[in-house]
Write a structure and sequence with these properties.
mainly alpha; globular; 19 helices; 447 residues; 63% helix
Length: 447
């Protein structure tokens, strides 16, 4: 218990506006100081003066920070904290209810359900509920109708100064699009707010710390990447994901030309945003955020094209799918290697590990087909796959059972793939298709 309180005390330090593992994952970090706000909320002498919605946001930030810390940690301290995020998130919701947010919705209520904890603390079913509620709040507050004029402000709210300011407008817009991105990618339901019904412009090219409390501020040049522009990118990628789901996944009579068109849209976004190349003095938080955004894009590309990749080896019509699948798989493994070396926390838990495993399987298919014909050309790819063992080894002892289980299985998959490659010279292995190999390996790895 003492360890748990010590860890909470460090996370509550007023010098940390947002737990360091959380802030870079959200386009608009919280303004609340978790330590100061919660202490004020708990203090009997100031109970009537405390803003319960600020306390709710601070509690949510704490839950997100602890959850990310325990995903990556392998210590007893992390295990000691494992039960804290859910009750902290529920405490945040209770503090929000104290503020009567249903009768008088305000910005903090929207921000609470757009934050990193809304997707990490909530299970799959409640996430859809939270998101739909947040979209309704957005509509009720008119955040979807702000237009493109930078002088048009959202309604006066206690979270901001009453004076017109770029900060008031852009923080509101960034949080709004964070919610609308989730609305697009919860595929079990139709989006509650479609792009055609959205009048508000995409988030501008700003950093949260660069916005003044009062007054209008010019955005950064388009050649400069910011956390707010990454939020805009996430939403635009989500629109393409939604279109892929509706026109490909849910349509058994789709045309392959639709896949190529959506591929062009994703590559267009890669060219539109300065996301591939980093400046020489890139801060770590921006490196992490940029790398995660790139990972999201390459994971989408790999998922778009992987169903057609095998056909690309024998039919020129599908050559693009083979090419993009391999390009995306290499990028995923290279980015993950760099993130691991920099000490970045694991986002999306076991889903992230599964995507790395999928990239291994995609890249190894090319190694398998080419090893007999061009054994030297696949050396770099083999090394990329081998390097993933460090990633999987780190998380096989995670305190989160799903992360540990998938990481251990992934290690077995890598081991069995290379074992099969060594045996490829035998007649039975040489004649084995890659799909049969994967089925054999899946059974052996209890996958």
């Amino acid at each position: 218990m003492e360890k748990r309180l010590e860890r909470l005390e460090s996370l509550l330090a007023p010098s940390q506006p947002t737990p360091p593992e959380v802030g870079w994952t959200a386009g608009a970090p919280s303004d609340a100081l978790p330590g100061a706000v919660i202490e004020s909320f708990w203090a009997e002498s100031t109970h009537d003066e405390s803003d319960t919605e600020d306390a709710a946001l601070a509690l949510e930030d704490l839950a997100g920070g602890i959850r990310m810390a325990r995903v990556t940690a392998r210590t007893g301290e992390a295990a000691d904290l494992k039960d804290l995020p859910p009750p902290l998130f529920e405490s945040a919701r209770a503090a929000l209810a104290c503020g009567d947010w249903l009768r008088q919705p305000r910005f903090r209520a929207v921000q609470l359900y757009s934050g990193p904890t809304s997707s990490t603390a909530a299970n799959r079913n409640t996430l859809a509920t939270y998101t739909s509620g947040a979209v309704r709040l957005v509509q009720q507050l008119g955040y979807h109708q702000l237009g493109a004029d930078p002088s048009v402000m959202p309604a006066v709210d206690p979270a901001f100064s009453e004076r017109a300011s770029t900060r008031r407008r852009e923080v509101t817009i960034c949080v709004t699009f964070s919610i609308l991105m989730l609305d697009q990618i919860i595929f079990r339901y139709k989006p509650m707010l479609t792009r055609s019904a959205l009048i508000t412009a995409l988030p501008g090219n700003y950093e949260d710390g660069d916005l003044a409390v009062d007054g209008l501020v010019e955005p950064s040049p388009q050649s400069q990447l910011t956390l707010y522009s990454l939020e805009a990118l996430r939403y635009e990628v989500a629109l393409v994901q939604r279109e892929y789901h509706e026109q490909i996944i849910s349509n058994p009579t789709f045309e392959y030309s639709t896949v190529l068109r959506l591929d062009q849209q994703i590559h267009g976004l890669l060219n539109q945003y300065p996301i591939k190349k980093a400046p020489g003095d890139e801060p770590q938080r921006m490196f992490w955020a940029r790398s995660q955004a790139l990972l999201n894009i390459y994971i989408r590309l790999m998922r778009f094209h992987r169903p057609f990749m095998t056909r690309g080896y024998r039919d020129v019509k599908y050559a693009r799918s083979k090419e993009v699948s391999l390009e995306a798989a290499r990028a995923i493994l290279q980015l993950e290697k760099a993130l691991l070396q920099s000490g970045a926390p694991l986002l999306r838990a076991c889903f992230h590990v599964v995507h790395v495993q999928a990239a291994v399987v995609v890249l190894f298919q090319d190694i398998w087909y080419n090893s007999a014909l061009k054994p030297t050309t696949s050396a770099d790819d083999k090394q990329l796959v081998l390097d993933t063992t460090k990633f999987f080894s780190k998380y096989r002892t995670s305190v989160r059972p799903q992360v540990a289980r998938v990481s251990l299985q992934s290690l077995h998959v890598v081991q069995l793939l290379f074992q099969a490659l060594q045996e490829q010279s035998t007649l039975s292995s040489a004649q084995m298709s890659y799909s049969k190999l994967l089925k054999h390996i899946g059974n052996a790895a209890e996958y």
